[in-house]
Design a protein that fits this description.
Order of helices and strands: EEEEEEEEEEEEEEEEEEEEEEEHEE
Largest sheet: 9 strands, antiparallel
CATH topology: Beta-galactosidase, Chain A, domain 5
Radius of gyration: 18 Å
CATH architecture: Distorted Sandwich
Distance between the termini: 35 Å
Number of helices: 1
Helix content: under 10%
Strand content: over 45%
CATH class: Mainly Beta
Number of domains: 1
Number of strands: 25
């Protein structure tokens, strides 16, 4: 569902370690590995306005009055192409939901490359009117335990939220992750805005031997970090912050317009 990348198993080259699951197929969390569209993260009260009309998404945020992650995680994609090194999937939406009446085609290509995965995303507005669009990805990375992991990103703007998980209006610049920062005893459900191009690479050090790099193209302006337990972490590239369909932090696609984005994963051994 949701065009998910459900598993990624890697066999280290420079060590005698056995294969390790970097994205485990048995992590049973909502939106695991899915593409989040037409908005990532939360939409307060599920309400937004566009082009003079008001729309209401269903509320699904675990008891809080928000809509969460759009509706693409619930959609079944079809396989367009599958080879030993590539798989392409797509979903064609007819615009038949009252809360998002904008037809589109969403295509994802996963390409296996040396020590990693390149991901190409193409979104096309198939309708006769403009449509609002914001995107996120929700992969969960498996670890031996977060207490042995560290994370490095760069200088970020930390979006502060209220008790409902939506922005409070306060933003704090943080250098917490400008160098490798231990994840021991850290619980995260935090949104950050990227300040510099070099900070579009997030490095998760699984231990002193292996790291995962998460790359994202310039359209991905935000990152959500989420630790649901001590065995996994979600590192979520997002093209917008929280509550984007209300704040106007989204891309407007004209009829027939195509939006192309890129992100990727890479393993490094030490």
């Amino acid at each position: 569902m949701g065009g998910s990348l459900n598993g990624w198993v890697y066999s280290p080259k420079s060590t005698k370690e056995s294969s390790i699951s970097l994205i485990a197929p048995n992590i049973n969390y909502p939106s695991k590995g899915s593409w989040l569209f037409p908005f990532p993260n939360r939409l307060a009260n599920g309400v937004y306005s566009f082009d003079g009309q008001k729309f209401h998404f269903p509320l699904n945020d675990q008891g809080r009055p928000n809509a969460l992650h759009g509706f693409l995680p619930e959609c079944s994609f079809e396989i367009v192409e599958s080879t030993d090194s590539k798989i392409s999937v797509q979903y064609a939406y007819l615009g038949d939901k009252a809360f998002y009446p904008f037809p589109f085609t969403f295509k994802v290509e996963y390409l296996i490359v040396d020590q990693g995965v390149d991901v190409n995303i193409v979104i096309c507005n198939d309708g006769e009117t403009s449509m609002p669009a914001a995107l996120g990805w929700h992969p969960y990375f498996s670890t031996e335990g977060l207490d042995t992991c560290s994370l490095e990103i760069g200088i970020l703007e930390h979006i502060q939220v209220n008790e409902l998980g939506v922005p409070s209006g306060e933003i704090q610049t943080t250098k917490d992750y400008s160098g490798p920062r231990s994840l021991a005893n850290r619980v995260l459900d935090d949104c950050f805005r990227v300040q510099n191009d070099e900070d579009r690479v997030i490095v998760l050090y699984l231990n002193d031997r292996i790291s995962i790099e998460v790359h994202q193209s310039e359209d991905f302006s935000h990152i959500q970090l989420y630790t649901p337990d001590r065995k996994s972490i979600a590192i979520e590239p997002m093209t917008s912050g929280i509550n984007s369909l209300q704040t106007g932090d989204y891309k407007v696609l004209s009829p027939g317009e195509t939006w192309q984005l890129y992100c990727g994963l890479k393993i490094k051994e030490y």
